[in-house]
């Protein structure tokens, strides 16, 4: 079958591109290996409450296209108004307000790194912090270590692996972070209306010339004037023979140079309140084997959700546990932070994005001694027939849903110029 454009991947970037191109009367087919659309935006609705297993937040609500999409689709958004705090577990779970200290550390990091150009490699977050300790010895080591691990957690890595330039990189949008109490995949449903999909249909080979793309799948071949490839970075790193001919060395170098971060969730739901405040808590000591931090969300008197976050090596160790052991370990972790017992959860969920064959991780980050400019190379087209979208192609806001969305719109514009000129 022949289309104007074939899109590989039905995640947010693929859906955004397909939706925009369809509005321009361009014939589009979206191929997806999974039996469902949304990619790493997935909500488990098998029981109440709905639980987001992938993406969680809208990062910065002012001017964010996801905020407007949610409003148009009449989706319920709540501000993420939570206090971030460190818990001193060795002194009766004493909580330490870190807001002023975090601002100070961010300033020190920026001074330590200097004005490193985005085209230049950058030292690891751990090395940058070691320089801070040397220049500002009055900051307690435990506090500095915990805040450093939180910065690395956001990237899905560890302090010795994450680029310091990447770790302190700000986002494009301001305003409160938001979240969807009724599930993030409402955005997916809003974008998918009227789009043609071929689901449970993994791509086997992407053959491309300067004039056409021919894509081999388990169910047959599809031809198009152009293709938008939205395959996650982790899969591109594994599937080295997917393209024929192979991608240019510059593009392959960018794929190999970036890193796929891993953040796993363990979610416990309660119908009674285990903690009076909505908080994001992290232990001061960072001695826990499996968990980095925990978010406590109070939705209603009978709906209380606790999300445990595990990143980098902690996430890898966590995946070795069976689900009952993960739940038990999470309950113990929560108890150690709150200083009180934990009731029996009414619903639980766990994730394993690193082992997902169609994701191979959560989202991308820049490792130490690499450059943020790799994201620009990830976004470069090949021969005006292969175009690339997804969070790992969006330098301004990688690792975000709005970054994926905007990358899809960007490539839809590029493809339209090519397709409409023939």
Explain what you see.
This protein has 422 residues and is α/β, with parallel strands linked by helices. 32% of the residues lie in helices and 23% in strands. The chain is built from 13 helices and 22 strands. It has helices spanning 12-23, 65-72, 99-113, 125-135, 141-155, 164-167, 186-192, 233-238, 249-257, 312-318, 323-338, 374-378, 401-419, and strands spanning 2-8, 28-31, 43-44, 51-52, 57-58, 78-79, 83-88, 94-97, 178-179, 197-198, 203-208, 213-217, 220-229, 243-244, 259-261, 263-270, 279-283, 293-300, 303-311, 347-350, 363-365, 386-388. Strands 1, 2, 10, 11, 12, 13, 14 and 22 form an eight-stranded mixed beta sheet that branches. Strand 18 (293-300) and strand 19 (303-311) form a beta hairpin.
